[in-house]
Every structure is written in structure tokens, then in C-alpha cells.
Amino acid sequence: MTDYAAAGVSVAEGDRAVELMKTWVEKARRPEVVGGIGGFAGLFDASALKDYRRPLLATSADGVGTKVQIAQRMDKHDTIGFDLVGMLVDDLVVCGAEPLFMTDYIATGKVVPERIAEIVKGIAQACAESGTALLGGETAEHPGLLGPDEYDMAGSTTGVVEADALLGSELVRPGDAVVAMASSGLHSNGYSLVRHVFFGLAGWSLDRQVDELGTTLGEALLTPTRLYTLPSLALARAGGVHAMSHITGGGLAANLERVVPESVSVRIDRATWSPDPIFGLVAQLGEVERPALEQALNVGVGMVALVEPETADAAVRLLQEHGIEAWVAGEVAEAGVHGPGGSVTVVGEHA
User: Fold this and answer.
1) CB contact burial 313-349 (16+ within 10 A = b; e otherwise)
2) Three-state DSSP state, 303
3) Phi, psi for 182 (deg, rounded to 5)
4) pLDDT recorded at residue 254
5) Do you know which NCBIfam families this protein is assigned to (predicted)?
């Protein structure tokens, strides 16, 4: 006799995974959450939106990419959730939106309840740190499609911003200052290049101690994505912010150009910061030229704010008070001064 378990899917283990994760999900609640996990849909009391004059809902969906392979190879799963949450909520905050809630989706070849609970633990901790409710999710077992120890993950999030507080390119003006916020490392982008360099070309192992990094290669590669959500919201609410950009896949210039209007051009000076050594190692070991490196990786800058020049110093101080290393990295000028309209030019050599 054949049943679901014989086909490789264990309903019992899925139920046990839900029980193990409940404690962590409970830590990622907001007062507006109605009920608990286990239902068909998560519920969020939206009556608070009545206090907005014109609330705009913002939404974002993303995954973690091939960084999950590092977590799988190291059998360490309690930090990869930070990467997922960071990719979601920090996309929302660039328009000034406060994240309200998120849902996650984990697909795996075999449900190991303890492993799923560790993944959700990281997600819940990051949600709590960013003020986001973990409203629900789905764990799917896909035997034959994924190996027993393989998984992938994705999520979506929803936030809200008052219409007249919306940030964006239409506010950017010549004279604005570029305030850069330091990344915690590679974050969650460019790992196909990173894995190719360290494992394919250099032949390094994850347990290799790397003096330049002060840790093993694996620990450095699993460094969680920095969460900029609450500091960036505080910055936006302080006033003087015109636009923000989350530096993810595509790199600094390409992501910043997404919020730069055709009426201006932007210049960023590399001399204003020193990237983490992990970026230099990728370039050196893989003989990766600067344009390719800066296109694939954040090279030390995880978030950028374009602010009124008279508020730039105060913006840097506010971010530093919130634990984010920040500095003025460049300026906005009229189109043609630093390049064509809508362009971002990065110049100089790193400090």
C-alpha cells in the first residue's frame, strides 16, 4: 500500500515544524496581528490606516538567492532569515514606507522540523528588529525536485506610507548630498560570482581561516544582511530626505540611478570609504575587474539617502546614533555636470 509518506512527504514532520516555529513567530508580532499561525490566511487589523490622510500601501517580494547554499553546506540556518527580511523590508523603506507584515515560503526536499524552525527563528528575529509582523507562511516538501538537505526561500511584505511623505526621484534636486550607509559585508547579492571565485577558482573550503577576514570563509559568507529599516524610517521622519536606494543586485551606481531623475547627475567618491576585505579578496582571487565587481556586489555600501545639503551632517549623526556607520559620499548636480541626466558616476580610489 502506498501513501504520501512513501512518496517522500511527511505530513507529521510538517506539523511538528509548525509547532517548533510557533515560539519564534510569536516574537515577531505587532498589536495589529489577529489570531495566530495555522490558519489558511494571516489576519492584520488595518483600522489604524484610518488615521492616515491618504495611505499608500507598498509591497515587495524577494528571495535570498544562492546564499542559501552556504547555509546548507555549513548546516547553519539561523541567520539566513535575516537576509530574507532585509531584502524585503529595506526595499519598502526606500519610499518612506513602514513595513507592517510579511509572509514567507520555504521549499525543501525533506522537512526536518528543527532546521525549518532555525530558519524561521532568523526570520522572526529580523522581523522583530525591523518592527515587522511575521503574519504567516508556507513550508512545502518537494522530494525529487530538491535534495533532502536542500531548500529555497522567498517572501513578500506589505507596508504603508502617507502620500505626502512619499520619497522618490521627483524630490531630488541639484545640491543634494549623498549619504552612504555601510553594509555588513556581501549581504545577499552576487553569490554566484562569489561561489565561483572562492570555490571554483581558488578552491577554498568554508572552514578555511582567512587572516584578512579575521574569521573562517564560511562565517564571513554567512554574515547576515544589515537591516536599515528603523534607522532609515527615523531619518525619513526627521525631514530633509528626498530619496533612498537599497543597494542590492546591480551594485551601487545602477541601484542609485533608479531614483535619480533626468534633470540631475550624481557623483560618488570612492575615497570616502574603505570596503570590507571580503570585496578585495573576490577581486584578487577571481581577477575580477572593478566594473564587474561593482556591478555584482555592494562593495561596502548597503543603502544610500539623497538629502538636502544642510541636513547631511545631522543625517549622518542620526544614523550613527542608530548604530549605522554613515558618511557623505558625494553630491547631486545638474545634468551634464557629473555625467548625462539620470546618471551616477563613481570616481577615485578607496581609502
Assistant:
1) eebbebbeebebebbbbbbbbebeebeeebbbebeee
2) strand
3) -65, 140
4) 97
5) purM (TIGR00878)
What are the residues whose beta carbons fall under 8 Å from the beta carbon of 271, sequence distance 6 or more? 348, 349, 350, 351
Nearest residue to 86 (alpha-carbon basis) of 268, 227, 270: 227
Phi, psi of 62 (to 5 degrees): -165, 175
Say if residue 162 is exposed, middle or buried (CB neighbours under 10 Å; 0-12, 13-18, 19+): middle
- Listed as own residue / partner, the contacts of 233-236 with beta carbons closer than 8 Å and 24 or more positions apart are 233/93, 233/96, 233/98, 234/318, 234/322, 235/305, 235/315, 235/318, 235/319, 236/93, 236/96, 236/165, 236/167
pLDDT band at residue 4 under the 50/70/90 scheme: low
What backbone torsions phi and psi does residue 58 show, to the nearest 5 degrees? Answer: -115, 145
Angle between helices 229-238 and 113-130 (to 10 degrees): 20
